[in-house]
Amino acid sequence: MAEENSQNEEFERQPVPQKSWKDWRSFLGMYAGEHAAGTEFVIGPLFLTTGVSAFDLIVGLIVGNLLAVLCWRFLTAEIAVKNRLTLYFQLEKICGKGLVKFYNVANGVLFCFLAGSMFTVSATAVGIPFSMEMPKLTDTMPNGLTWILIVLVLGAITTWIAVKGYQMVSKAANWMSPVIILGFLIGGFVALKQLGVSSFGEFWDIWGEGGEPFPGQIKYTFWHVAIWSWFANAAMHVGMSDLSVFRYAKSPKSGWTTAAGMYVGHFMAWIAAALLYSVYLQSTEAQAMLAAGEAPSVAPGPLAYSAIGVFGVLVVLLAGWTTANPTIYRAGLAFQTLFPNMKTSWATILAGGIATVAGIFPAFAMKLLDFVAVYGFILAPVGAIIFFDEYLSKKWNLIPRFAEAKGLNVNWAVMLAWAVAVIAFYTYSVSTGTFLSFLTLPAWLSCGVLFLLLSKWTQKGHS
Question: InterPro entries under this entry (predicted)?
Fold first, then answer.
């Protein structure tokens, strides 16, 4: 029994002991599977709707994903292995228990919206036998009772499974990930054949210089693709959320395994999904919509079904499920911090309910490029606070992990730095029309510097 308890120990409030460290192979499969999921079926086609050229897409993804991997390796993994603490416990030491609860709620709500977009993805597969009208790119509201009923059923089933516990969810996801990756690969090759492409040169010629963006979209350049793909997972790497993962690593070199997720999911899968959409755009239906000035639907279910049949429908269902399930579970844990006496199961049900309601509205999936940018933008600056506290506090003659040292419930230097950085740069983005992902790094750096300056002021009264 003691051995079993040891194996199930999550080390939530203590460093991970050496006996529980894992080598790089434990992270390789996890990252490859986690980043070839339901979101890829939407993000790939959405890139095509921005009119991006072949060069800008391919080279932009190569550069942006490399920058993301470098952040995981040299920022996240280094701090994770050095301290071996979860994000939440390390953050609590810096900003206090009260502020961690606020962060967890923000994190939980954003997780729910992401899970909701996955219900939208899965619903497009379930709706095929019912000849359901698929949501269009510009749709924000549900387009019929059938859509609402399918999302409600999917939400109930997914939440019920998440309530059963993360261990079952993660094991199932590991088994399903190879099927999903295979589905993307086959779908991409089938789409190339349907497009009449037999060489890389022909692929380049067909994609060419891109074109005008679809209604409601902006034109993407190399910089849009590179910076967006760099910060698509900003919350995980520069935002330090994956401290909770890499605290188990034997060496920071395990951070290199994130390349499996980036170049399998955020490169191959995105391009494969975009090719499936390219085939659909040649259809009579899509051409008629474009001629009328409308944006054709980005419905993963029909796209995959038209390429690889029933297997495609299965892949879309599994991809949505394997993304939504752990996302709902994590959101439940975040909400539980508000009500410590609440059972995990009820917190998960709450998260599932919010996600299901969000899934009814296609806007979260149809605007996934924008939502992911906002998600990373809001949470990333918190990672700057951890980084600056870890490496610069003592150089500035500041007390590191100040909330723990002084028993504070809220470290106002953290709260103000985070709020000012996010609000100031988001307001600038909205008022000037600047692409939000371009401002993620400036917001991250500003938050770190503000944290140090405000700490100089707030720590004077506690010296």
Answer: CodB (IPR030191)
Amino acid letter, residue 227:
I
Place of tokens 């920022």: 75
- First-last CA distance in the chain: 47
Judge contact between 440 and 376, C-beta under 8 A: yes
Determine the number of helices (DSSP H) and then strands (DSSP E) in the chain: 22, 0
Q: Tell me the residue range of the domain where 115 lies.
A: 21-372
Q: What is the pLDDT of residue 137?
A: 63
Q: Which two tokens stand for residue 338?
A: 């508000």
Apex 136 CA angle, 132 and 138, nearest 5: 150
Q: Has residue 39 been placed in a domain?
A: yes
Largest CA distance in the chain: 72
Residue 26 inside a domain? The answer is: yes
Q: Find out whether 379 and 107 touch, Cβ atoms under 8 Å.
A: yes
Task: Specify which residues 249 forms β-bridges with.
Answer: 22
CA 175/CA 14 separation, integer angstroms:
30
* SS3 assignment, position 194: helix
Q: Is the pLDDT of residue 10 over 70?
A: no
* Residue 462 scores a pLDDT above 70: no
Residues 6 or more apart in contact with residue 136 via CB below 8 angstroms = 289, 294, 295, 296, 297, 366
Q: Is residue 140 part of a domain?
A: yes
Predicted TM-score (pTM) of the model is 0.86
Identify the CATH number of the domain in which residue 212 sits.
Answer: 1.10.4160.10
Q: What is the pLDDT of residues 52-61, one digit of tens each?
A: 888 899 999 9
Q: Give how far Cα 163 sits from Cα of 106, 184, 188, Å.
A: 21, 29, 35
Radius of gyration, CA atoms only, the chain: 22
Number of domains composing the chain: 1
419: amino acid identity, one letter:
A
| Three-class DSSP category at 22 | strand
Question: What's the rounded Cα separation, in Å, for the pair 183 and 307?
Answer: 10
Q: What are the distances in angstroms from CA 282 to CA 169, 195, 198, 264?
A: 38, 9, 18, 26
Q: What is the DSSP string of 203-244?
A: HHHHHTT--PPPTT-----HHHHHHHHHHTTTTTTTT-TTHH
Q: Tell me if 58 is assigned to some domain.
A: yes
